[in-house]
């Protein structure tokens, strides 16, 4: 375990710098995980040394943050799954200052997958004290705003994230929201002014909108300053009026919030 602690000290120092060498940290994490497997600490069972468990937990926590920094979401999922044992089965360990930030990231991750039922299950499994943590309050607010359709508030939450890593998942969430809004636009309108489309989709620059429009197959007329949506097949023309009305109300509500 002494060699693990030496490598852990190196990892912790490297990751704590203003601009960490993520490649080096990734190499150290790979080496440390092998060491944890050999020491029986990656998926611990039974009565183990508390200090060793704390070190193992902190290594995995750094791994979770590293995964977000490198935009490796499957890796984050694996680290979180491994940390669950430490957070639940070894709750007698000294509290970790990283537990709520990582649990909060997991909650937002569930929102990006639209796993609302799993979100509430995970939230209910936390103690009452968790509600007072800004790391938990942030995803709770995001979920409420999503259910309300208050997408402008979700957009604004990017600047209010309690940790830098939260921004990555919020951006991912906005990508999902943009596609939902775009689908409604394609259903309810034949065309829209570029400016209105950018506002509805929360783009701050025309170049971002043009890239998105190209990906969706929209026709852009820069001279006229408009977007014409791709024509759908005949089977999509018989659209329930309620859906169009709901889409229009969504746009009106978003415009009011933005203004």
UniProtKB/TrEMBL annotation:
<keyword id="KW-0647">Proteasome</keyword>
<feature type="domain" description="PCI">
    <location>
        <begin position="74"/>
        <end position="241"/>
    </location>
</feature>
<dbReference type="InterPro" id="IPR033464">
    <property type="entry name" value="CSN8_PSD8_EIF3K"/>
</dbReference>
<dbReference type="Pfam" id="PF10075">
    <property type="entry name" value="CSN8_PSD8_EIF3K"/>
</dbReference>
<dbReference type="InterPro" id="IPR006746">
    <property type="entry name" value="26S_Psome_Rpn12"/>
</dbReference>
<dbReference type="GO" id="GO:0005634">
    <property type="term" value="C:nucleus"/>
</dbReference>
<dbReference type="GO" id="GO:0008541">
    <property type="term" value="C:proteasome regulatory particle, lid subcomplex"/>
</dbReference>
<comment type="similarity">
    <text>Belongs to the proteasome subunit S14 family.</text>
</comment>
<dbReference type="InterPro" id="IPR000717">
    <property type="entry name" value="PCI_dom"/>
</dbReference>
<protein>
    <submittedName>
        <fullName>SAC3/GANP/Nin1/mts3/eIF-3 p25 family-domain-containing protein</fullName>
    </submittedName>
</protein>
<dbReference type="GO" id="GO:0005829">
    <property type="term" value="C:cytosol"/>
</dbReference>
<dbReference type="GO" id="GO:0043161">
    <property type="term" value="P:proteasome-mediated ubiquitin-dependent protein catabolic process"/>
</dbReference>
